[in-house]
Amino acid sequence: MRRLRSDIEVPLASVRMAVAAEIQDRLAPYPPASEANDPSRPRWYERGFGTRWRGGRGGNKTSQMMNRQWDLQAVSTTAVLRNMATYSAYVHHDPADGGPHQAWFHGPRGWRTDKQVIAQVISDGTVQEITVIALEGYLQGE
Within the chain, where are the H helices? Predict the structure, then answer.
């Protein structure tokens, strides 16, 4: 502890932002297309557009392109990661946390919840690795 300079908040802020960015990197990718995206069905979901129907009735453009709606900010002593698409909670939010949550059909199609990804970055050592790198750089004066 004597080696630590007085303001350890700087590397801790780096850790928070790096961990949140890692969570975003793991949540953001779309899973492979599923039967829901199959245009040979009477009704399907077209990524980047929304629901389509066979027979020329195209539906309305409802896709908010979730992959382009991520927002990561440092707010006080917290890293805030959110997706601005209005329906993102129905894709990524864990049901155990209450409120809007992942629809029953998204999990089987490969969409992961926020809690699943957070648990993974903790259990696979990513948080520890990011913390060690930040603190080593801090101790070396980088």
Answer: 9-27, 89-92, 114-123, 126-139
CB 36 within 8 A of CB 122: no
pTM for this entry: 0.87
For residue 61 the two structure tokens come to: 């453009």
Q: Which pair of tokens denotes residue 75?
A: 């707010």
Residue 121's pLDDT band (cuts 50, 70, 90): very high
Is 2 among the domain residues? no
Q: Look up residue 100 and give its DSSP letter.
A: S
Which structural domain range is residue 129 located in?
9-139
In a domain, 58, yes or no: yes
What 3-state class would DSSP assign to 108? helix
Counting the structural domains of the chain, the total is: 1
